[in-house]
TrEMBL record, chain A:
GO terms for biological process: rRNA processing; tRNA 5'-leader removal. It is found in: Nucleus, Nucleolus. It comes from the Eukaryota. Belongs to the histone-like Alba family. Pfam families: Rpp20 (PF12328). It comes from Anaeramoeba flamelloides. Its main location: nucleus. Keywords: Nucleus, rRNA processing, tRNA processing. The lineage of its organism: Eukaryota, Metamonada, Anaeramoebidae, Anaeramoeba. Component of ribonuclease P, a ribonucleoprotein complex that generates mature tRNA molecules by cleaving their 5'-ends. Also a component of the MRP ribonuclease complex, which cleaves pre-rRNA sequences. GO terms for cellular component: nucleolar ribonuclease P complex; ribonuclease MRP complex. Gene3D superfamilies: Alba-like domain (3.30.110.20). GO terms for molecular function: nucleic acid binding; ribonuclease P activity. This is Ribonuclease P protein subunit p20.
UniProtKB/TrEMBL annotation, chain B:
This is Ribonucleases p/mrp protein subunit pop1. Residues 679-734 form the POP1 C-terminal domain. Its main location: nucleus. Residues 301-313 have a biased composition (Basic and acidic residues). Residues 477-570 form the POPLD domain. Pfam families: POP1_C, POP1_N, POPLD.
Length: 136, 738
């Protein structure tokens, strides 16, 4: 396949809102926990957090969600759902004899919803690394 | 002589001697005096200043007499009207025609001039930046809503010839010698006219001038055999930057001696806007509109007719079958395009479509209906999905996936390619605008978009998809191509429906966030590098500011060893063959010590050269031709903190330092006079990238130094030193493929 140039296909999702966290394989679990802390504690308007992941990053998303549960002492409700997503790749020819080829492939995706239970309280042992505490 | 006084006075003698005087007195009383004007005969309390040029200020009894006098020497009419009337748009356009030989105005100039700072570049007057502070904010807008930029200063040229001749002619010109093969014009991706391509043209082999361009082919049915079309005449449209225009025209005219190809500038050139961002589809759906329901009405009528015919057929069985109405090709193509346009609502990012695909539409003039003003930069993604029923949603979902898989050329067939349609549209503008204004003035409420019939004129419009970065998915959008004369109406409608307008400085920033080079500012291989905005506007301002400040309060560039602090000087790298010797550095420092004030003068003489640029895929694929001098473009990302700025110097680290950096140990090093690092290259654009969360820049490295220090390049680490000071920032680099 030296005569072809590979163009990867992008998943077709909406741009992220305030609630959403899209997980990629390069992102660290620490940064994800920081972001979730901000959303749960500081912003009380947020009712649920949506976590999305594709392919390789599903493992990371699951680790992150379970770590959050432990941190908040089982006061969060997690609901998951899985689905498949179609992706379209293209092989673009470099010479003039060949025709372009589009390839359809499937990938698995996960969607986790995180909500607070009715008796949600911030645990006292926890070190909350928000901006207010950094000044102190 | 009589010595006694007379006792008697004879009246006759007395009167006869006095009549002369009396006559003179009378005549002088009746007539006016010698040299003074009529107005000066008035008493002082009745004289007015404006009587000299305005007759209506003269008292009524004297007007006739003064009109006769003014007829001989009429007063000079003041050419200048009041300032308010001079600055109305119609009068400004007339004044522009007088000035248009020096620099050209775009069609939307007056709208931009009220809201942006304009500068003279490339023979045009272009918008450089907005009046608001939008440098950092344009990233958010381009990532979440949409942004619009006026690109109609790109010139369009047309080539007409047989297909085989065109392919062979352009294959000689396209840059194939560099490490990465750029696609030729005859590539089957573009031949059928369904997609746009981009490539690089060599304009001058000796002086090494190369520039990029974009092209579109004519229409061919998608399933046809290409070899049948070898000897048929076809058309290409080429878009090229105005800085390289004269070189292109000279080149092609010199090669086209036997009239192999007919090459000319397009008459009545179309305008071009580029819209970037995920809500660009939403914005376009509000503005580009044609009667959907009319097509549905036709179908409903047909079904009703069929039912009536069936009812009647039961009675009379002898009647022959009804004539099946054969759909013409145009109708079927129209249907396909409307279905595609509706199914685009399901696509949330323009990056998920195939690269460079083209759609053509026939659209109603947006002046006929008013677009609701969007609230301040809000997203309205749920807008288009509210009005669809569930069955329609499923239908369009399937279609939206078919589109990403296959894009046939029937979607891109349009009437813009005809000369006569373009002429008709231009000639008919004034008439249509007047009619619309007249009708609108009679109505009580303004026109809202409705399904009632609109006049027949429809405007052909092309929509082209542009791809963003291939790793991040940022910066993708659509280009809209509009025939000449209608630019202002489309622009105003697009801005009201939610797209935020930007200038060239913000456009430059969005391009570097995607990781690609922006044409005049980052391309060393074209002489437009020295006519770009960074050279003419930014670096001049900085140098003037530096010269004005007091010596003790400004940066001492000599002390830090920087020779050209305001603009990168690549020719100085080529002169010094070995950068390690300290003797060479001392000589250059001494020569610059003498000419401390004349640094700018020395540098201007060198600013005419272009440099050879090569592309490389991997470090392993470097060819060892050490004879050729060339530069390699790279993208640099900072490892630790620090923002990389323009004109920064690039150095290669030693072995110990690179080991420190890879092990993530502390790295604190400063530059001093007896430094052993070798100067390798410069940065042309640098900033703090908001998409990546670290410093990011685009620069050039000298090829010879890369080959020598291959051992140090295994980790691909580079040290960056800004012009401000002496701190080295460690950074990783990758080879650029554009």
């Amino acid at each position: 396949m030296d005569n072809y140039q590979f163009a990867i296909g992008f998943p077709n999702h909406l741009p992220p809102k305030r609630n959403d966290i899209y997980v990629s394989s390069k992102r660290s679990v620490k940064s994800l926990l920081k972001r979730a802390d901000k959303l749960l504690i500081e912003e009380t308007k947020v009712k649920q957090i949506n976590v999305y992941a594709l392919g390789k990053a599903i493992n990371k998303a699951i680790d992150f969600a379970l770590d959050l549960q432990e941190k908040y002492c089982n006061q969060l409700k997690l609901t998951t759902s899985t689905s498949t997503v179609e992706l379209f790749d293209e092989y673009q020819p470099k010479t003039e004899d060949l025709e372009p080829i589009t390839q359809k492939r499937y990938n698995s995706a996960i969607h986790i919803k995180i909500t607070r239970k009715y008796n949600f309280q911030i645990p006292q042992n926890q070190q909350i690394t928000t901006s207010q505490n950094k000044k102190n | 002589m009589s010595e006694y006084n007379p006792t008697l006075v004879s009246l006759n003698d007395f009167l006869n001697s006095r009549t002369k005087e009396l006559k003179k007195l009378r005549s002088e009383l009746n007539t006016r005096r010698g040299n003074c004007q009529l107005t000066q005969t008035l008493p002082k309390h009745l004289r007015r200043r404006t009587m000299s040029h305005d007759i209506h200020r003269v008292p009524y009894r004297m007007r006739k007499h003064i009109e006769k006098e003014m007829g001989k020497n009429p007063p000079r009419k003041s050419k200048l009207k009041s300032r308010q009337s001079r600055r109305k748009p119609n009068n400004m356009l007339k004044e522009y025609e007088r000035r248009s030989k020096k620099h050209v105005w775009l069609e939307t100039h007056i709208w931009h001039a009220k809201r942006m700072h304009m500068h003279r570049l490339f023979g045009y007057k272009l918008a450089y930046r907005t009046n608001e502070k939008l440098l950092r904010g344009c990233y958010k807008l381009a990532a979440r809503s949409s942004v619009i930029y006026d690109e109609s200063y790109y010139q369009c040229y047309e080539c007409v010839a047989k297909q085989q001749n065109l392919i062979t002619f352009f294959s000689k010109l396209i840059d194939n010698q560099s490490g990465i093969n750029f696609k030729t014009i005859g590539n089957r991706l573009f031949l059928r006219g369904n997609r746009q391509g981009s490539s690089r043209i060599i304009l001058d082999r000796e002086k090494k001038v190369v520039c990029p361009f974009r092209f579109i082919w004519d229409y061919i049915p998608f399933d046809s055999n290409i070899e049948e079309y070898k000897n048929k005449t076809r058309k290409i449209w080429i878009w090229i930057h105005p800085a390289c225009r004269t070189l292109l025209v000279d080149l092609i005219n010199s090669l086209n001696t036997k009239n192999y190809i007919s090459f000319h500038e397009l008459e009545n050139q179309p305008c071009r806007f580029s819209i970037i961002g995920p809500s660009s589809i939403n914005v376009l759906q509000k503005v580009l509109w044609f009667d959907f329901e009319k097509d549905n009405e036709k179908e409903k009528e047909k079904e009703k007719e069929k039912e009536i015919i069936k009812d009647n057929a039961m009675e009379t069985e002898t009647e022959t079958e009804t004539e099946t109405e054969t759909e013409t090709e145009e109708d079927s193509a129209l249907k396909k395009r409307t279905m595609v346009w509706k199914s685009l609502k399901k696509i949330n990012k323009p990056a998920s479509l195939l690269e460079g695909c083209i759609l053509s539409l026939d659209v109603i003039n947006p002046k006929e209906f008013t677009v609701k003003r969007a609230r301040e930069r809000e997203q309205e993604f749920q807008f288009h999905q509210k009005n669809l029923t569930r069955i329609e949603k499923d239908k369009y979902e399937k279609l939206s996936k078919k589109i990403q898989y296959k894009w046939s050329s029937e979607f891109s067939k349009s009437k813009l390619w005809d000369k006569q349609t373009r002429k008709k549209l231009l000639n008919g503008i004034e008439r249509t605008n007047k009619k619309i204004d007249e009708e609108a003035s009679k109505k009580l409420f303004p026109n809202v978009r409705s399904s009632k019939a609109y006049p027949n004129q429809k405007i052909p419009v092309l929509i082209v998809q542009t791809a963003g970065s291939k790793t991040l998915g940022f910066g993708s959008g659509f280009d809209v191509i509009i025939p000449k004369g209608y630019a202002k109406q489309f622009w105003v409608a697009l801005v009201h429906s939610g797209a935020v307008p930007i200038g060239m400085r913000e456009r430059h920033r969005i391009e570097t966030e995607t990781g690609r080079r922006f044409f005049p500012d980052d391309f060393i291989e074209a002489p437009s590098f020295y006519q770009s905005a960074t050279k003419l506007i930014v670096s001049e301002k900085e140098s003037q500011k530096w010269e004005k400040t007091h010596k003790g309060k400004r940066v001492n560039y000599k002390k830090f060893g920087i020779n050209s602090p305001f603009f990168p000087d690549f020719s100085s790298l080529l002169k010094s063959s070995t950068n390690h010797n300290n003797d060479n550095d001392k000589d250059t420092d001494n020569s610059n010590n003498n000419n401390s004030k004349n640094t700018n003068q020395i540098q201007t003489t060198q600013y005419t050269n272009t440099f050879n640029v090569e592309f490389v895929e991997n470090i392993n694929s470097l060819k060892t031709n050490i004879d050729s001098e060339s530069f390699i473009p790279i993208t640099i990302t900072a490892i630790q903190k620090g923002s990389l700025k323009r004109n920064a110097h690039l150095y290669f680290p030693t072995k110990d330092e690179s080991n420190k950096i890879t092990k993530k140990l502390k790295f604190n090093q400063k530059w001093s006079k007896n430094d052993n690092h070798c100067l390798v290259g410069f940065i042309t654009t640098g900033m703090f990238s908001l998409a990546r969360g670290c410093g990011f820049a685009i620069g050039f490295i000298r090829k010879k130094d890369l080959i020598k220090n291959q051992n140090a390049c295994k980790n691909s680490i580079v040290l960056v030193r800004n012009t401000n000071g002496a701190i080295f920032y460690p950074a990783k680099f990758e080879f650029c493929k554009n």
